[in-house]
Amino acid sequence: MPSMKLQVEKPKTPGYFKPLLAVLVIAGAAFAWAHFMPGTIALPLTFEIVNFEGDAQIYDPQTHSWRVPKRGEDFHTSQKVKTGPDGQINLQIENEIRLRLKGNSELENKQSAVVGKQEVYKLHFGQGVLFGVTTKEFDRKKAAKKAVLEISTPRYDVDVLGSIFRIETASLASNRSWVGVLRGSVDVRSPSLFFRKGGIRIRGLEQANVIDGAVQPSVRVTQEEWMSLKEAYQLLEKTAVKEAEQIDLSKHAGTFFDVVFDHGTFYTPKIGYAGREFYKDPDSGDVYLDTEYDVFPASSFVGVYIKTRNFDAAQYDGLSFEVKRNAEEGAPDSFFIEMKSKGNVVRRFAPRGFERAWKRMEFDFRAQKPTPINEVVFVFTNSRVGEAKKGVLEFRNVNLIPRRTPLEAPVAVAEKVPAPSKPAIPQPVSGTAAKPVTVKAAEQMPAVPKEVPL
């Protein structure tokens, strides 16, 4: 029988197999590196349920059932919370992240852990409305790439870059969702199984729609959209302990605070917001004052009040400080500094020209007779701040200038804005509404600070 040569052919590999295999290998390697390499062991982080109201439930993995949560209870990785039509849940990572889940909403803690030296917070927001804020502690870590907050939804993903935000997402049955930002920024992108796709960045006072999974270009918020966003400001409210810490920190912000016994903010909740926070720079040890304003709604005014112990302006030549704008935030064209005596404005200054580098400014009191001052107020108005209706200014080295002898007195002094006969702003109360007043005449006054090179 003649010999026969047999030819054996290997089955042909489909054209898509090799690329798919490469993707799986890379993904597996990345997973192993993130979870098993030395120094990258994941240590779990937990959110705390601060409080809740109405129909609110948490999934108990031990009983495999839903139950009413407990105040102060931990919200662990792989746990879920949900709310009914009238429900609400407030959660936090203390001093870093604060969240509020509104009615008919679902949230899952996907993976909140310390991976190596990085804090990673991953949440899945199934549907509903979620408000969130990040604090300065988180923002500083984020700047150093030591903290990440990622929120996934059925139709898009959000990377929070230090922000005050509102996320609204519908179930897969609906095709429209919405993301809005009051402060800071977030990146919104379409979801991807392995790699992040390019998205858009939404900054303060901007919003973007997500339609059929496609992120639309960001646009400036409308008055109605701002009203739906402003509830997020409630998450910034400080506890009594935090307020006491603020008073202590302020004592290191300059000699002016030696005569101060209280400070806070005033604003009309329906049409504005103001914030003030003293914080210590971990590198330099300097204490700064952050003043935040939001006067987006027309005719709104907000500010920071500082209560003093009737110090005599005649005993000092003036007030000096260093100021700069925040590189990531807006800054006002100008604002008012008002000095009050028994409720009446006796001195008013209007600083302007804020830059990204520290700039020193001085304001002369020119008090020729005893002038007791019991309050100093920073006032931001919608019309005076210019285009940046939302912004932040930072202050440091806020000092009273000792009275100079005639030989020490400067040749040229800064003019001051004439004070009105009646106070322009009513007596402020921390965190409460201020009654509307007319400030048109004051807004026409020129800005006259004396700038001193650093």
The CATH architecture of the largest domain comes to: Sandwich
CATH class of the largest domain: Mainly Beta
Mean pLDDT: 82
Give me the count of strands.
28
User: How many alpha or pi helices?
Assistant: 5
Distance between the termini: 105 Å
Give the domain tally.
2
Query: Within the CATH hierarchy, at the fold level, what is the topology of the largest domain?
Result: Jelly Rolls
Strand content: 35-45%
- CATH homologous superfamily placement of the largest domain: Galactose-binding lectin
The major β-sheet equals:
17 strands, mixed
Radius of gyration: 28 Å
Pick out the low-confidence regions.
Answer: 1-13, 30-39, 410-416, 421-454
Structural class: mainly beta
Describe the structure.
The structure is a single chain. The protein is mainly beta. The protein folds into 2 domains: 195 residues, Jelly Rolls; 215 residues, Jelly Rolls, CATH 2.60.120. It contains 5 helices and 28 strands. The chain has a 17-stranded mixed sheet that branches. The termini are far apart. The relative contact order is 0.09.
